[in-house]
Amino acid sequence: MTAGTEPARAARLGRPLVWVGEVGSTNDLARLLVAAGCPEGAVVVAARQERGRGRQGRVWVSPPGGLWCSILLYPSVDQPSGLLSMAVAVAVAQTVEQFVPVPAGIQWPNDVLIAGRKVAGILIEATGPALVVGIGINVGIELRVLPPEVAARAGSLHLFAGRPIEGRAVLDVLLDRLADWYGAWAAGGQAVCDAWGFRDLLRGKPVKVLQPGVGIEGVADGIDHEGALRIRTAAGDLRRVVAGDVTCVLDPERQSW
Ligand code: BTN
């Protein structure tokens, strides 16, 4: 991205900043903070999660060495929430690139990958007036502590950097980038679509969307202004898949990265 397309700086995030050693899920602790009246920008960080969760009801294994955090946002603008998840993904991708000498891509809707390996995931949950933005980044975890099927597709920043990386340093960059892209989303979202599209790992690739009772196959054709995935079917139709409602996978036999 060129300097000219950088978004305007928005709200400061990270006040207050709550650090805990161990928690079930930082998203659950963040929900409690919302109920207690904590303001926008509050952040919860845990050294370890016992019951970290991912999208689509999956477990998110969260051993020590990762950055597991949740940020409270209280959006006051009428922008598509699906696109906010894209804005967060761009912020995370830019963050990890500050620490590794390899470009980061995004697999729809918001998985951040380096060299084909997932290094970060995002789970946004609504509670009352707030959105809890849960972000997990594999900063310095050992892949051998992950279940084999997860380790086979996961990456950790320190392995790409070839050196230890401080979680606190990653958090500081993340909160800055997040403030920027939250502002870009609130300002209309075109910059988010552009930046997301620049990192889109699926565009032009054959994809299969798995959803109970629905099967869509075709070629990924980027996202629309609401963050929905566009898929061009073999019949030439353009189908629209809404963020958060589906699991999107590459056909493993045709996976090319
Ligand atoms: C995914 O890729 O499926 C999303 C993973 C999100 C994991 C983060 S870690 C911090 C926050 N707390 C959770 O329980 N989940 C999110």
Defining traits:
single chain, alpha+beta, 6 helices, disordered N terminus, binds biotin
Task: Please provide a written account of the structure.
With 257 residues, this protein is of the alpha+beta class. The chain is 25% helix and 30% strand. It contains six helices and twelve strands. It has helices at residues 26-35, 81-97, 148-151, 157-161, 167-186, 190-198, and strands spanning 17-23, 43-49, 67-73, 104-107, 111-114, 117-127, 130-137, 206-211, 214-223, 229-232, 238-241, 247-250. The strands form two sheets. Strands 1-2-3-7-6-5-4 form a seven-stranded mixed beta sheet, with helices on both faces. A five-stranded antiparallel beta sheet has the order 11-10-9-8-12, with no helix packed on it. Helix 2 runs antiparallel to helix 5 and helix 2 crosses helix 6. It is globular. The two termini are 22 Å apart. Mean pLDDT is 89; it is low at 1-9 and 251-257.
How do the strands and helices of this protein lay out in sequence?
Elements: E1 17-23, H1 26-35, E2 43-49, E3 67-73, H2 81-97, E4 104-107, E5 111-114, E6 117-127, E7 130-137, H3 148-151, H4 157-161, H5 167-186, H6 190-198, E8 206-211, E9 214-223, E10 229-232, E11 238-241, E12 247-250
Parallel strand pairs: 1-2
Antiparallel strand pairs: 2-3, 3-7, 4-5, 5-6, 6-7, 8-9, 8-12, 9-10, 10-11
Helix pairs in contact: 2-5, 2-6
Biotin binds at residues 25-27, 49, 52-55, 58, 60, 62, 68-70, 111, 121-123, 134-136.
